[in-house]
């Protein structure tokens, strides 16, 4: 916290601050007799390119023997250096890296599902953050084989009043069935990472984990 007394309308601030640091500035006029009303303003220092996203991880769901889909998840950059607008995901087969495809998701989203991938190939994935200054560097690439089923770490909690799916990776829970209904039975997890269950109306549902 610093105070300046000046008769100028511009003051150079010489301390070095990180990009997009929050600042609270107050200004008031002073005469020989009194001080005027204080004007408050919240500011940010100029933005800079964001750092790379962290902790890129993959989960594989095999739909058929030759076709798979993959769930990508990541964490925001340690230093976003501005408000993250989008994330750009780049993926390609490890054998032909120059023929990559890309996807753009909102900056509030930290996961992406990519479907219809061939389980015969190795795929390489990486993600970059985008703010008002542009796209930052890509994360470390992750190479994944789609031959093996590697589902998201989830737990299904079944009671006579509700079904709740716990996502251990995101540490989130999703209510599959509300307490207004009752569960007659639920199957163990099926090969395709789904399970079937029946409510008290004898309606059968299939839910993905």
What does this structure look like?
This protein is mainly beta and 209 residues long. The chain folds into 2 domains: 92 residues, Immunoglobulin-like, CATH 2.60.40.10; 55 residues, no CATH class. Helices cover 0% and strands 47% of the residues. It has no helices and 16 strands. The strands form 5 sheets. Strands 5, 6, 8, 9 and 10 form a 5-stranded antiparallel sheet that branches. A 3-stranded antiparallel sheet has the order 3-4-7, with no helix packed on it. Strand 14 and strand 15 form a beta hairpin. The two termini are 51 Å apart. The relative contact order is 0.14.
Which helices and strands appear, and what pairs or packs with what?
Layout lengths: L21 E6 L11 E6 L9 E9 L4 E9 L10 E8 L7 E6 L4 E8 L3 E10 L2 E2 L6 E4 L8 E5 L4 E5 L4 E6 L5 E4 L7 E6 L4 E5 L1
Antiparallel strand pairs: 1-2, 3-4, 4-7, 5-6, 5-8, 8-9, 8-10, 11-12, 12-13, 14-15, 15-16
Helix content: under 10%
CATH class of the largest domain: Mainly Beta
Overall mean pLDDT? 84
Task: Count the domains.
Answer: 2
User: Could you give me the name of the CATH homologous superfamily of the largest domain?
Assistant: Immunoglobulins
Q: Strand pairing plus helix content: what structural class?
A: mainly beta
What proportion strand?
over 45%
The profile of the biggest β sheet is:
5 strands, antiparallel
Helix count equals 0
Shape: elongated
Gap from first CA to last CA: 51 Å
How many whole angstroms does the radius of gyration measure?
Answer: 26 Å
Low-confidence runs: none
Label the CATH architecture of the largest domain.
Answer: Sandwich
Order of SSEs, N→C? Answer: EEEEEEEEEEEEEEEE
How many DSSP-defined strands?
16
At CATH level 3, the topology of the largest domain is Immunoglobulin-like
């Amino acid at each position: 916290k610093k105070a300046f007394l000046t008769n100028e309308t511009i003051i150079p601030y010489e301390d070095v601050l990180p990009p997009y640091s929050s600042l609270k500035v107050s200004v008031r006029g002073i005469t020989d007799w009194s001080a005027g009303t204080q004007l408050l303003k919240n500011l940010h220092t100029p933005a800079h390119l964001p750092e790379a996203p962290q902790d890129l991880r993959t989960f594989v769901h095999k739909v058929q023997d030759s076709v798979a889909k993959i769930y990508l998840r990541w964490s925001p950059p340690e230093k976003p250096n501005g408000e993250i607008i989008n994330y750009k995901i780049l993926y390609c087969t490890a054998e032909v890296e120059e023929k990559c495809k890309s996807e753009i998701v909102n900056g509030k989203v930290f996961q992406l599902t990519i479907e219809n991938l061939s389980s015969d190939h190795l795929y390489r994935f990486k993600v970059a953050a985008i703010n008002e200054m542009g796209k930052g560097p890509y994360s470390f690439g992750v190479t994944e084989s789609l031959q093996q089923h590697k589902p998201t770490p989830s737990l299904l909690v079944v009671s006579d009043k509700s079904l709740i799916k716990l996502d251990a990776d995101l540490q989130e829970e999703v209510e599959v069935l509300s307490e207004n209904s009752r569960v007659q039975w639920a199957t163990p997890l099926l090969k395709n990472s789904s399970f079937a269950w029946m409510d008290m109306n004898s309606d059968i549902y299939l839910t993905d984990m």
